[in-house]
Amino acid sequence: MNILRFYIGKTILATSLMTLFTLAIIRVLFALIDESGDFDKGTYAFIDGLSYSLLLSPQYIYEFFPMAILIGSIAGLGVLASRSELTVMRAAGKTTWQIIGAALSYGLILIAFSVFLGEYVAPKTTLMAENLRNRALYGEQFVDSNQGLWLKDGANMVHVGEVMGSSRLSDVTVYEFNRENELTTMIHAQSAELVRGAWQLNQGIVTQLGSDGAEAESNESITDGSIQRFNRVERLPFTQQAWDTDISLDNLSALSIEPENMNILNLYQYRSYLENNGLETKNYDLAFWQKIFQPISTAVMIILAASFIFGPMRSVSMGARVLVGVLTGMVYFFAVRSFGPVSLVAGVPAFLGALMPPLIFAVAAWYLLRRAG
Fold first, then answer.
1. Cα dist from 188 to 257, 260, 274, 310, whole Å
2. Cα torsion at 269, 271, 276, 278 (round to 10°)?
3. Fewest C-beta in 10 Å: which of 49, 73, 205, 361?
């Protein structure tokens, strides 16, 4: 059985990986075409668009994973069926579920690869891609660092700890300068929100900095003037305060961290933060549960592929098998993309919204296998 398990697993691994990378290449090409509309904006050129698209490829691979595994498993098992090798295995006493188990055992390698890609590789490369694109498009207006994001807002500088969505910032500090480039005011807020088209700072403190004339003259006698000194500091706390800024929504949207681009730990932590502050968590709940169920979805796709091969597609051509695999994979891909958001609008818990697509396809696989005997 070990030899058969290796042979079946090797075949499915080969066809699945080939399908996966083929879909990723196609998606990268479409992304590059989409980016071509921004060429010549700022310093954004073809090489930047290509680098951006390639850096997004791990995220594309992760999104296409269940679909690719379904097509690859149908192709792999279809190759074995076309050579009558599955028939020989069953004639030798191997049951359908033993063959499926052999496929699933090597499917664990694919599942582990998917988890590694989605948790460690894709979030980092996606962030790198966005930073590369933003630097090329917006130049010095945005400077990213490991400690947050620096934005140039006219004569002022703004530090943002984290961008969450296209309308919310956390840990915001505004540094205001006068015409002599002297720091006059610091505003720190726990968060900033876009409310009815205007930015609003929440839960913060305004620090006014200044110096008296006599003290300033005294300071000039002991310093070379390169160090700004203050002898008057006023701190004014606030709950909410309007923020007059030139930072545009389009630019912040480009820098936002979408839920699907976050790993499970960050999703859980940010969801807890939103919940503790009485904010909406549905989108992050959905992304969290979809990532939790992604490995299960991959296993379901392998079982579904086997149900096709042992059931209604037992004696059809390879081309027909691949076509059915592509169509079924597309149905699943769009079901995941549409069912989750629709369920949230309908008030269905995010857990069920993420669970329903793989559950429906698992029931379909069980039904087909049961009919096949």
1. 22, 29, 20, 64
2. 160
3. 205
